[in-house]
């Protein structure tokens, strides 16, 4: 047995045992294949989710535009109704303020006591004003009706708001969620990002399989060498006179020795490649999780869209009811506003009519004074005629009385006839101070210049 070709059985045994242990790397390869299989299946699922999510997301965008348009239409309708209502409130406030100002004027306008004295209706110590003739119950009833319809308008608006606000909030939520999804990477991009990782895994798996195959060959060679060594007492040696066998054995031992030194490195490389696959698998898993989260978020949005469609149907019904009720309310408000304005006009004209009454009293006083002047003048002229007549009668009797018998005309000695002026009907004109009448005339002149209709 030569020492150059002889190998210690102990070395061969160590190589064999190490080679056998290295075959445990098959678990690494198995795990690598599992990772690849899982990744492939996940990629298929991701591709399916990608196509579905893209289709659904596109549909959600289109449907969202319809919901937004419908919401805008209903919001605009509500805003128009609100503006009309606010305009009506402004007109009501103006009319109510005008009525209050008119009633205040009536409260401040005292009825001349001379009117009550003439009619015999005056109560001692009680001063009347024009407001005493106002129908307070009628005014309060009209204002109560207005308050009722205003409350009805507000109640109708609140009912519609309770239906429209959730719809508006839901649309805002869907819009925000959709915007958030759009800012993230699209699912197709994530799917594309996985493919290089899968290709890298497949490359690692292929190399690992090759390395495992080389370990298996090394194990087979170690097993063969150990069997030959054990067939000789001292180790492995070539048979004398068989140079080919001697050379083959030497080459085999050289390969064994070289490979034995690389076994641990090969095992480590397989493990390192598996570690890289595991790390890549974790990244892929996270990406797949993102894809799944994105897909589930799209499904959640789809559920919200279904909810939005249901709410839209309800809001559409409520919108029609809202517009109809508010139109009815506006019509009632317009009618009550017209009543309020006509009532105010009535009391404005009532105040003006009272001033006209004062002016009329002044006119009648003036006429009566003219009549009295005419009567006094007529009576004075009659007195003058009577005095002249009396003188002429006396002169006649003085000249001819002695020659005329007394019974020729019994009325010859009668005095001139006396006259009196007597009123046919019992009537009196209230004694109104001239200053009061002049103030009334001034107010009427101001009313005429401002366009208020006069009696």
Automatic annotation (TrEMBL):
Subcellular location: Cytoplasm; Preautophagosomal structure membrane
Family: Belongs to the ATG17 family.
Top-level division of the source organism's lineage: Eukaryota
Primary localisation category: cytoplasm
Biological process per Gene Ontology, one example term: autophagy of mitochondrion
Membrane topology qualifier: Peripheral membrane protein
Biological role stated in the UniProt entry: Autophagy-specific protein that functions in response to autophagy-inducing signals as a scaffold to recruit other ATG proteins to organize preautophagosomal structure (PAS) formation. Modulates the timing and magnitude of the autophagy response, such as the size of the sequestering vesicles. Plays particularly a role in pexophagy and nucleophagy.
GO molecular function per UniProt: molecular adaptor activity; protein kinase activator activity
Gene: ATG17
Assigned keywords, A-Z: Autophagy, Cytoplasm, Membrane
InterPro entries: Atg17, ATG17-like_dom
Name of the protein this chain belongs to: Autophagy-related protein 17
Keyword Protein biosynthesis: no
GO-annotated cellular components: Atg1/ULK1 kinase complex; phagophore assembly site membrane
Residues covered by the Autophagy protein ATG17-like domain: 22-404
């Amino acid at each position: 047995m030569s020492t150059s070709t002889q190998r210690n059985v102990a070395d061969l045994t160590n190589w064999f045992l190490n080679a056998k242990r290295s075959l445990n790397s098959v678990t690494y390869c198995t795990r690598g294949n599992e990772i690849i299989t899982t990744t492939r299946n996940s990629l298929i699922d991701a591709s399916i989710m990608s196509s579905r999510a893209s289709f659904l997301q596109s549909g959600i965008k289109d449907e969202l535009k319809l919901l937004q348009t419908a919401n805008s239409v209903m919001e605009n309708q509500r805003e128009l109704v609100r503006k009309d209502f606010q305009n009506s409130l402004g007109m009501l406030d103006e009319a109510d303020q005008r009525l209050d100002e008119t009633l205040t004027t009536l409260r401040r306008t005292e009825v001349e006591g001379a009117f009550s004295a003439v009619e015999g209706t005056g109560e001692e110590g009680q001063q009347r004003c024009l407001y005493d003739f106002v129908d307070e119950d009628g005014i309060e009833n009209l204002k109560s009706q207005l308050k009722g319809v205003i409350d009805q308008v507000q109640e109708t608006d609140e009912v519609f708001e309770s239906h429209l606000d959730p719809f508006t909030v839901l649309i805002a939520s869907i819009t925000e969620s959709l915007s958030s999804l759009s800012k993230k990477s699209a699912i197709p991009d994530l799917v594309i990002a996985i493919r290089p990782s899968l290709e890298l895994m497949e490359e690692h798996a292929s190399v690992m399989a090759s390395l495992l195959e080389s370990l298996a060959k090394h194990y087979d060679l170690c097993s063969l060498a150990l069997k030959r060594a054990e067939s000789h007492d001292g180790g492995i040696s070539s048979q004398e006179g068989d140079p080919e066998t001697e050379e083959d054995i030497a080459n085999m031992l050289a390969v064994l020795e070289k490979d034995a030194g690389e076994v641990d490195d090969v095992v480590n490389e397989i493990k390192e490649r598996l570690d890289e696959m595991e790390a890549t698998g974790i990244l892929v898993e996270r990406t797949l999780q993102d894809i799944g989260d994105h897909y589930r978020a799209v499904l959640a949005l789809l559920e919200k869209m279904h909810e939005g469609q249901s709410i839209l149907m309800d809001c559409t019904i409520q919108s029609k009811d809202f517009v109809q009720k508010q139109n009815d309310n506006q019509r009632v408000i317009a009618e009550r506003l017209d009543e309020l304005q006509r009532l105010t006009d009535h009391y404005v004209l009532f105040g003006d009519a009272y001033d006209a009454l004062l002016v009329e009293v002044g006119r009648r006083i003036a006429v009566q004074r003219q009549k009295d002047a005419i009567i006094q003048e007529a009576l004075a002229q009659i007195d003058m005629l009577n005095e002249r007549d009396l003188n002429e009668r006396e002169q006649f009797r003085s000249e001819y009385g002695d020659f005329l018998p007394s019974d020729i005309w019994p009325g010859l000695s009668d005095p001139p006839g006396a006259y009196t002026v007597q009123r046919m009907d019992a009537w009196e004109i209230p004694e109104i101070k001239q200053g009061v009448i002049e103030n009334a005339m001034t107010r009427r002149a101001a009313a005429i210049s401002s366009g208020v209709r006069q009696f």
